[in-house]
Input
Amino acid sequence: MDPVHIFCYCSTTVPNRFAHPIQILKTVRALAEQPGVRVTLYFVSLGTKPRAIWRYYGMKPLPNVRVRGMVPSWYFRLMKLNNHLCPEQQKIFHLVRWRLARELRRVARTERAFIYTRNENAITMMRKSADAAGIPMYLELHWFKHLDWFRKLPWNQSREVAPPPIGEYKRLLRKLKANEREVLNQADGILCLTDEIRKVLSRWNLKCPLTTLPSGVELIAPEELRANGVEPAGLESDDSEEEVAAGGDLGGADDGDDSADGDAAEDEAIATTDTSPPNRTPLDILYLGQLYPWKGVDLLVQAMAHLPEYRLTIVGGNRDKDKNRVKSLARELGVNGRVNLVGHISHPKVKRYIRKARVCVVPLPRAGYREARFFTSPMKLFEFAAWGKVIVASDLPTLREVLTHGQNALLVRPDDPVALAEGLREALENQPLREQLAAGALKLAQDHAYENRARRILEFCRPGGKVTA
Output
């Protein structure tokens, strides 16, 4: 492939406690490892030096990846001095756009390039500048922004605010949807996280080509898999007595990253609610991720009432109100003694819990949450698969795009704690099935490795304004 310079624009400040910078950084690394590719990665601002950001997420920097902040650091100091009422807000927007446009023009004179972003605002902000430089723009779409706008309207935030008449309600939704369609039409191509998103966009009659691009995963080294009691597909077994049980060596490594560098800063203790570090005892059931209602954690806690002999470990959750909701439910059901709510931990520490888990669960609900039904491709699902873990998940359209019941996961009826409990019990107690699902999970991870994801991006985004669907 001809050399190409990729500009990635991200609408967040790093480091932070959310998952999307992890996927962005891993995708950027995979792109930069392809022959002839250079990447300039822009976040809104950087909370620390680029090398420290890579280390925070358990990755090593690459020489052909530049990480930069769009907004100058002095702007945030000015905001702080003015109690966040900065009189220069509009000017800083134009300054950022001018700086980015100047760099696009400079690069376009000597290199082939394209813009890749997950943020629709970047399309709006940079479309004219990209056209002036002759650089195409591609959008990786995870969600529909008009649904976020609609959700934030006053009557959707509080029951005390009366909604408008149904006719006005529908007109407003159509207007928000039309505004988003206009933005998406400015992209030169759209890569949809799920096929359900692509199907929706295909009905919007957009001018640009569409494709589906699920989440990716960093593959685990064969020796690490063997040390965890998993035989990598296609490799002969090693009969060495040095292999350890499911707990394995818990030294600070990354979940799905084989690039953890053992830096002393990454060996800090895990901040858990019970403050005890993980030991070598295998975990029965592991949930990893946020505790938002649409993630299905409440259903999982309810299922634990039907599994009295097993324990659940929950890793993740940034909001106190979510943690308190889950704790209250566990106490109400009398399972709080068997539910360990660890809380948020740094990304490189997550691997410690995944490698110890006997079963990993993705309990997304169907009723009331379109995010779960249509718009999610959980990164954690592929991380579970990379470790050859037995996966139990809800039988939903988005998950069926990558999971096959009885082959690489057990799919259970959503919104049913009894069905979830039965699936978990089967996954815990049926050893032949466990071996079959573990082998299928490893194959799933290999198919969705970040290296393959990067190749698909480069095949779809062809510099020079042309796109291959």
Residues 222-448 form a domain with the Rossmann fold fold (CATH 3.40.50.2000). The two ends are 17 Å apart (CA to CA). The first strand starts at residue 4 and ends at 9.
